[in-house]
Structure formats: structure tokens, C-alpha cells
């Protein structure tokens, strides 16, 4: 394995064009199972135990979509948001997540659900993906990074640092998923290039043309970021895991596990404020099965 190459992302990536809008294809790359209490915190120690799956039968757990998004920019090319689970999860969870991960996580996935297979079905080869934006590096989002050696990866600097800290697995990271000699651009949300956008206090214009705006939404993980896309007639907000479900967007119900609850609630306030001032926006929470069942194949 070669040296991992990182550099600060101090300015827009090339390829932007004035007034550009993008198209969006939500891709469901399999499903991962979780107890309901993991998505929405329940009170007391018994509630926490149920949220961790203790005493929750398999038939009481729910299947959550594993999200990936294909964005098509008219001049900057194909952009991917997250990479989903590794293709190996379709047939060998130990290979995908390690022995402990295979004991904890249950994934429902076919070989055709992998991000690379779905891209090819759409006529896009993985080598044609110029840019991959990572909301964060948890195992169900970073699992197929290795499929895109020709891409530029955009990760929040804080997320990259946290993902490389000791005991990463207990915080949802598997280092082998992103320990590749690829081109990583680290976005420091404290840098001079950071501006505000709508209700978001910290934002970065990825191509310098307003088509893809990255916004800092930490809390679920230390360096989590969400993405605002300019479609032809409205905007779309990819929440990532800043909000698992529509319920969290509606009533603020937090999930069980958070990196930082204060930051989570601040990020959620910014998202909910954005929804109020941009009521026409398509807002997609990270793992809401009902919302995903209602999404269209393509948004322009």
C-alpha cells in the first residue's frame, strides 16, 4: 500500500461553471438492521439497553437503507456522496466488517446492490467518478471507498482526524475501508475559505459556482458534513446522519448514540431552520425507510 496523500482543501475544485445546476440520483446500497431505540432515544437504562439491541428480538428490529447519492454536474462531472457498504457484505460479513463487526451488524444486500454495480447499471464506470464527498467515515458510508482509486475524496478535517484516533471501531470506524493511497482533500471548517450559507453557519462552495455546497453538521460524528445541491428548480439537502429520520427533523428526537449531543442539537437546529426558510427544498434524512420508499429515481 502506498502513502496516503492528504492536502488541505483551501479553494474550490476545478470544473465549476456559472449558474450550473446538478441532477441527483439516490441509490440504496442494501440495508442494515437496527433496533428502533437506536434511531430514537428511549428514557432510562432499560431504554438504552433496548436501543443497543439487548432484549430486542430480530423480528422487532427494522431494516434501514444504506444511502449513496450520484450527482451529475454539467462541467465538473460525476460526483458521489458516500460509498455505502462494501460489496463483500453481500456474501461475507466477516470479510466486510471483521469478526466483531459481523457479530454486531446484520446487512441485507445482493451483489447488484453495491455502489459499483449500480453505477455500471446506470452506464457510469467507477473510474468516471471524479469527486467523492464523504458525509463522514462510518462503516456503512465508507465501505466502498476502495472502488474509486481515481477519484478525489473530500472529507472534513475533523472527521479524518477522529477516524484515525485510537479505538475507532467503538465509534463506528473501520480503518481498512479508507486506508488507501488515494487523493484526500481535507476541509477545515475553521479556515478562511469557510463562509455561511442560508441557515448554516459554516459552509464551503465545492466548485465555486453554488451548485454543490458542503455544510458543517457535526454531532453524529465529530466532523460530519451535509450537502446542499442546486437542482434546476429547487434545492436538495442531503442530511447524511445529521438526522436519521423524518421524525428527528420534525420533533428533534435524538438517536441513542452521538459523538457530541450539543453539536448534534446545534446542527439539527440549523437544518430545521434551513427547512423553514427553504420550504421547497427536498430534504433527505439518512436512514428513514419510509422516506426512501418515496424517493424518485432521479431529480433534476
List the keywords:
300 residues; alpha/beta; Metallo-beta-lactamase, Chain A; eight-stranded mixed β-sheet; six-stranded mixed β-sheet; 14 strands; 22% helix; globular
Q: In a nutshell, what does this entry contain?
A:
The chain has helices spanning 36-39, 44-51, 93-104, 115-121, 157-163, 246-251, 261-277, 289-294, and strands at 5-8, 23-34, 62-73, 77-81, 107-108, 129-133, 152-156, 183-187, 195-197, 200-205, 212-216, 225-230, 235-240, 282-285. With 300 residues, the chain is α/β, with parallel strands linked by helices.
Structure in words:
This protein has 300 residues and is α/β, with parallel strands linked by helices. The chain has one domain (5-11, 20-294): Ribonuclease Z/Hydroxyacylglutathione hydrolase-like (Metallo-beta-lactamase, Chain A, 4-Layer Sandwich). Helix content is 22%, strand content 27%. The protein has helices at residues 36-39, 44-51, 93-104, 115-121, 157-163, 246-251, 261-277, 289-294; strands at 5-8, 23-34, 62-73, 77-81, 107-108, 129-133, 152-156, 183-187, 195-197, 200-205, 212-216, 225-230, 235-240, 282-285. An eight-stranded mixed beta sheet has the order 1-8-7-6-4-3-2-5. 45% of the residues are buried.
Number of strands: 14
Unreliable spans are none
Helix/sheet category: alpha/beta
What's the rounded overall pLDDT mean?
Answer: 94
Radius of gyration, in Å, reads 18 Å
Within CATH, the superfamily carries the name: Ribonuclease Z/Hydroxyacylglutathione hydrolase-like
Major beta-sheet overview:
8 strands, mixed
The geometry reads as globular
CATH hierarchy, class:
Alpha Beta
Q: Please report the number of helical segments.
A: 8
Domains counted in the coordinates: how many? 1
- What gap, in angstroms, lies between the N and C termini? 39 Å
Residues in helices, as a percent range: 10-25%
CATH architecture: 4-Layer Sandwich
Amino acid at each position: 500500500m502506498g502513502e496516503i496523500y492528504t492536502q488541505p482543501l483551501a479553494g474550490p475544485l476545478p470544473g465549476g461553471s456559472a449558474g450550473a445546476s446538478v441532477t441527483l440520483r439516490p441509490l440504496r446500497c442494501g440495508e442494515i438492521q437496527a433496533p428502533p431505540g437506536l434511531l430514537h432515544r428511549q428514557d432510562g437504562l432499560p431504554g438504552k439497553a433496548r436501543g443497543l439491541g439487548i432484549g430486542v428480538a430480530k423480528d422487532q428490529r427494522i431494516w434501514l437503507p444504506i444511502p449513496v447519492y450520484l450527482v451529475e454536474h454539467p462541467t465538473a462531472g460525476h460526483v458521489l456522496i458516500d460509498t455505502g457498504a462494501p460489496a463483500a457484505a453481500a456474501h461475507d460479513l466477516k470479510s466486510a466488517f471483521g469478526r466483531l463487526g459481523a457479530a454486531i451488524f446484520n446487512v441485507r444486500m445482493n451483489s447488484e446492490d453495491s455502489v459499483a454495480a449500480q453505477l455500471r447499471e446506470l452506464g457510469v464506470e467507477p473510474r468516471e467518478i471524479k469527486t467523492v464527498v464523504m458525509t463522514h467515515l462510518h462503516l456503512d458510508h465508507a465501505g466502498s471507498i476502495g472502488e474509486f482509486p481515481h477519484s478525489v475524496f473530500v472529507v472534513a478535517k475533523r472527521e479524518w482526524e477522529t477516524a484515525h484516533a485510537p479505538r475507532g471501531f467503538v465509534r463506528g470506524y473501520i480503518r481498512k475501508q479508507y486506508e488507501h493511497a488515494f487523493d484526500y482533500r481535507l476541509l477545515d471548517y475553521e479556515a478562511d475559505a469557510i463562509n455561511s450559507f442560508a441557515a448554516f453557519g459554516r459552509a464551503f462552495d465545492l466548485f465555486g459556482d453554488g451548485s454543490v455546497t458542503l455544510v458543517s453538521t457535526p454531532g453524529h460524528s465529530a466532523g460530519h458534513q451535509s450537502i446542499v445541491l442546486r437542482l434546476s428548480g429547487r434545492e436538495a439537502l442531503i442530511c447524511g446522519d445529521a438526522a436519521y429520520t423524518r421524525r428527528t427533523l420534525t420533533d428533534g428526537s435524538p438517536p441513542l448514540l452521538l459523538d457530541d449531543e450539543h453539536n448534534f442539537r446545534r446542527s439539527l437546529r440549523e437544518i430545521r431552520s434551513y427547512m423553514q426558510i427553504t420550504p421547497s427544498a427536498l430534504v433527505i434524512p439518512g436512514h428513514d425507510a419510509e422516506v426512501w420508499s418515496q424517493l424518485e429515481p432521479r431529480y433534476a
